[in-house]
Amino acid sequence: MSMRSFLFLQAVCSPFFPRLADRLAADGHRIYRVNFNGGDTAYWGMRPAWSFRGSLDTLPCFLDEKFRSFHITDLVLFGDRRPVHLSAIRCAKARAMRIHVFEEGYFRPYWITLERDGVNGNSLLPRDPDWYREVGASLPDYGDGEPFQSNLRARAMHDMAYHLANLINPLLFPRYRTHWPYVSAVEYAGYARRFPALPFQARRARVIINKLLHSGEPYYLLPLQLNTDAQILHHSPFTNMTDVINYVMRSFAEHAGSDARLVIKNHPLDTGLENYRRIIRRLERRFDVDGRVEYLETGDLSALLSRAQGVITVNSTVGLPSLMQGRPTIALSNPIYNFPGLTFQGPLDAFWREGTAPDGELFRRFRNTVIHTTQVNGGFYSAQGIGMAVSNSLRRLESERSPLDALL
């Protein structure tokens, strides 16, 4: 194994990157790091690092000098749409460096994503059903991965610690501008208002879902995504989820069967800053579908999918369990699973009456191929999940070729 030089940039809010860097260093690789704010600095700890305090337009020159002077061979980062990462990726590609992009898993909860060059809308995974039929035929069934303990509290604590450390930004990183559209205090205020009400909302959701499952009425499911999701901001034709709701409800009113219902379920990590219930009630009146639309703050997604007539998503990973359960599914942008044989390829207006179930064998081969090439068993937030993710990422990071390259 050749020794390489890994440069780490911004990470998920957790100790994952520092632990990963320590393991790579123990294997003999050279490790470098750029800190962009107080949270980066706090989580990296006492490990050597450079601090970038310039404006974004000076970052390419800063990075190019580091790439050249320290013979950087590999770039490691979380998410490929942050402004600082866009600059870094362009510079790294100009030098034909290996770019390792981590992201939340396509098949959660026991997998994380690790791809070369880009993820989600920038993924190098083909959108060709025949390719998956061919290469997936010889791959094993990966199942759900080895389980581990994790919870929302650990994730929330890491997030708060990271943002608390960012209070030093005006002093030490005055030019830093976050990729996040909301100030953290505003987000936390939204969570504080929404989360205490979820137990009451859960009871209401169970009643509604039970009624839907036993009534025999056809219903369609629209699972919401986060307004801050890069998938929405950078890989979709929509500005936010209000635009999505308006677009879907208009089509539903004009083209779905008169006996059909539409169920809109909020994202579990939504901040509560948007009053979707009020927005939906206003649109019900505008499109004359009063009583045909249900809004759920929470609820059992698997149960909802089990009898859904169809699922409408922009590019959410909810599309994957929908396909796994054999539900007709339409994607309103271009996620990795949007191709013939899996998702409906016509317009939304036709989907309500013409949607068809996915090819189950094609999905099985697609799933095994995606896990084989892009997924790592582990997590970002709990000690157990991080330990698994670090160990299972090493082979892919140290390999000259990615698993996808080997299949292509």
Descriptive report:
45% of the residues lie in helices and 13% in strands. The chain is α/β, with parallel strands linked by helices. The chain has two domains: 136 residues, Rossmann fold, CATH 3.40.50.20; 175 residues, Rossmann fold, CATH 3.40.50. The strands form two sheets. A seven-stranded mixed sheet has the order 3-2-1-4-5-6-12. A five-stranded parallel sheet has the order 9-8-7-10-11, with helices on both faces. Helix 1 crosses helix 17, helix 2 packs across helix 6 and helix 11 packs across helix 15. The two termini are 23 Å apart.
Chart the SSEs and their pairings.
Layout: E1 5-8, H1 16-26, E2 30-35, H2 38-44, E3 50-51, H3 59-69, E4 74-78, H4 83-94, E5 98-104, E6 111-116, H5 129-135, H6 152-165, H7 169-172, H8 184-194, H9 198-215, E7 219-223, H10 230-234, H11 241-255, E8 261-265, H12 276-287, E9 293-296, H13 301-307, E10 310-313, H14 319-324, E11 329-331, H15 348-354, H16 360-374, E12 375-377, H17 383-398, H18 403-407
Helix pairs in contact: 1-17, 2-6, 3-4, 5-16, 11-12, 11-15
